[in-house]
Write a structure and sequence with these properties.
Layout lengths: L10 E4 L7 H12 L6 E6 L3 H16 L3 E7 L2 H10 L4 E5 L8 E7 L8 H14 L11 E4 L3 H11 L11 E5 L5 H9 L5 E5 L18 H9 L4 E5 L6 E5 L4 E2 L1 H14 L7 E5 L4 H11 L2 E5 L3 H11 L3 E3 L5 E3 L8 H15 L6
Parallel strand pairs: 2-3, 2-4, 3-6, 7-8, 7-9, 12-13
Antiparallel strand pairs: 1-5, 4-5, 9-10, 10-11, 14-15
Helix pairs in contact: 1-2, 1-4, 8-9
Length: 360
């Protein structure tokens, strides 16, 4: 069956599209659960104004169809991925259209391991969705909702546990662009334990300014602020926090390829780069590939565009590093999806470790 519901990364459409109507979301809930008993489902959302509305309708549908819903609230996509596994849920859901403008929205899915849902599982949900459109339904309302109030704390422990032996001297000054998205609170909460001076911009979401002239899709404001503040480095996330693009102290953009190169060198030196291989997509720069091969002696494997393709290749062959030029970076030994906050701290640690200007 040709895909009609799912795209390259979950479901995505205009926020006022038919798929996000109350009726469609109820049918989607039935399709997800498919008469299974006591399914545990974690759900989070981003800052766009339609996300709360869609989340409410989806939660109602899941509860009415018997699910045990863990309501995480406004939080980044990688945090939902981690918490899905942490709470031993059968499924994780994020209401977000990622890097897209507020007029769009989407629904991303994770399996019980915090991994993006497979194409087989997506097709099953899709098949059920179109099947259930033709059937009658009586409201059951036999599920439960549990609000998770300490999700930030649990996720923070996960992030900091990977950095416990790393030192961040406080003389660094870093600008952070939150894209008016889902990292605007949680990044401050996590970074408050790091001895670095962080300057936050684009951290006042109003429901319509997510990704608007900011974040990983538009680094102009980040660059201006880094120069204005004489900062050492700049970091920008996308609307749901699974991408990262940076700039150095001169305002030069550090894209996903350059971040991967930096991480490759560090993992190689610490003997943590599995099979001396990095996974990226056909969009990666040839200069990046040549650097890996000729300077570091590392093999690059290319996949089709889309972080899900990178992740699939990494998981099938136990590779420890992969990503996209667009800023999805996957640290395979400690995360199952791209995580802007986690990667940003790894990058800052490496920069300080070698005590050089980022532009060098």
């Amino acid at each position: 069956m040709e895909k009609k519901l799912f795209g390259t990364d979950g479901i995505r459409n205009l926020a006022n599209g038919e798929i996000f109507s109350n009726l469609s979301l109820n049918i989607l809930s039935r399709a997800i659960i498919n008469n299974k008993k006591n399914l545990k489902i974690a759900i989070g959302r981003d800052t766009r104004k339609s996300s709360k509305i869609i989340e409410n309708a989806l939660v109602r549908g899941l509860k009415n169809n018997g699910a045990r819903v863990y309501l995480i609230g406004l939080i980044s996509t990688p945090a939902v991925s981690y918490l899905t596994k942490k709470f031993n849920c059968n499924l994780g859901i994020v209401v977000s259209a990622s890097h897209n403008p507020y007029q769009y929205n989407g629904i991303k899915f994770f399996n019980q391991k915090g991994e993006k849902l497979s194409g087989i599982n997506e097709k099953e949900i899709e098949k059920n969705f179109y099947k259930f459109q033709k059937t009658d339904y009586r409201k059951k309302n036999n599920g439960t909702i549990k609000r998770i109030k300490n999700s930030f704390t649990i996720y923070k422990k996960k992030i900091l546990s990977n950095l416990k032996e790393k030192n961040f001297p406080n003389q660094l000054k870093i600008v952070v662009d939150c894209a008016n998205g889902s990292t605007y609170k949680i990044s401050k909460y996590i970074f408050s334990n790091i001895k670095i001076k962080f300057i936050f911009i684009k951290d006042k979401p109003n429901g319509t300014n997510i990704n608007f002239k900011c974040g990983s899709m538009d680094t102009n404001n980040l660059i201006k602020e880094v120069k204005k503040r004489s900062a050492d480095f700049g970091i920008s996330f996308d609307g749901d926090g699974d991408r990262i693009i940076c700039c150095d102290e001169k305002g030069q953009v550090v894209d996903g390829d350059k971040i991967l190169a930096l991480l490759t060198k560090e993992l190689l030196s610490s003997n943590k780069l599995n099979k001396k291989t990095v996974v990226s997509t056909i969009m990666s720069n040839l200069g990046f590939e040549n650097y890996l091969k000729e300077v570091l002696g590392v093999k690059l494997i290319r996949t089709a565009v889309g972080d899900i393709n990178v992740i699939k290749e990494m998981q099938q062959n136990s590779y420890s590093l992969g990503g996209e030029q667009s800023g999805h970076i996957i640290l395979g030994d400690i995360a199952t999806t791209g995580d802007g906050i986690l990667v940003s701290l790894e990058v800052l640690y490496i920069l300080k470790k070698y005590n050089e200007k980022p532009s060098r």
